[in-house]
Amino acid sequence: MTALQIILWVAVPYAAIAVFIVGHIWRYRYDKFGWTTRSSQTYENRLLRWGSPMFHLGILMVIAGHAVGLLIPREWLYAIGISEEIYHLGATALGTFAAVLTLAGLGILIYRRRTVGPVFLATTVMDKIMYVFLGATLLFGTAATVVYQLFGGGFHYRETISPWIRGILIFQPDVSLMEHVPLMFQLHVLSAFALFALWPFTRLVHVFSAPIGYLFRPYIVYRSRDANRGARAPRRGWDPVQQPDPEKLRRL
To answer: For 43-74, what is each residue's pLDDT tens digit?
Structure first.
């Protein structure tokens, strides 16, 4: 175990998690008005209508797949009848589809942001940095899946990366588990933690936004300022236009 391995597989993950948590608390406390997606739909809608659903549906599938593969021990899946072969087939097929869908949606969104003038002008520096790390994380993960899972002999990440992740979460990291992990998977993990560290300072905070308050807020009652409203029957047709006074016109 070297110092570099301790830095990469212990210090970096915990630093990223700490920044992720503390950064969100700070952002919510001091920048509530900035807690937004910074929507640009009013500037352009045609590309957004295709890119946004593709990206969001794909990324939700990616997150769900990672949660199952990394956080749930395989023995638990065996207990409910999901064998290694079934899991591998589902993870590879659905994972590839989700990756393609996510990358295609992200590509459309980046193309839109770069080519549509008003959208490009509304793009901040943090937006650009976020897109770089988000794209890198997705590309490294997709490349690792294609190289090792589709066309290679397969890499059993549930014996290395998955227990390492669970060890990080329970404060018992085992650095040796990451020692022989292929470089593509290592880059995928490190870029993901870098993205987590940047998360609180970008538009990605909208992931944790939900209009829950609308379910419990009181009804809004609208009242007219006209105290005599309803006291007289409405007239039919147009109100007559008063003729100007000739005397006043002569004075003008």
So the answer is: 999 999 999 999 999 999 999 999 999 999 98
Span 22-51, pLDDT tens digits: 999 999 999 988 888 888 888 999 999 999
DSSP state letters, 102-161: HHHHHHHHHHHHHHSHHHHHT--HHHHHHHHHHHHHHHHHHHHIIIIIISSS---GGGTH
Name residues whose C-beta falls within 8 Å of residue 47's C-beta, 6 or more positions apart in sequence. 108, 109, 111, 112, 116
- Please list, in sequence order, all residues whose beta carbon lies within 8 angstroms of the beta carbon of residue 119, skipping any fewer than 6 positions away: 40, 43, 44, 112, 113
Q: Report the topology of domain 3-215.
A: Fumarate Reductase Cytochrome B subunit (1.20.950)
| Cβ proximity of 196 and 204 under 8 Å | no
Q: What is the pLDDT of residue 86?
A: 87
Q: 187-213, pLDDT tens digit by residue?
A: 999 999 999 999 999 999 999 887 777
Angle between helices 125-144 and 84-115 (to 10 degrees): 150
Q: Please enumerate in sequence order all residues whose Cβ is within 8 A of that of 97, keeping only pairs 6 or more positions apart, or say none.
A: 61
pTM: 0.81
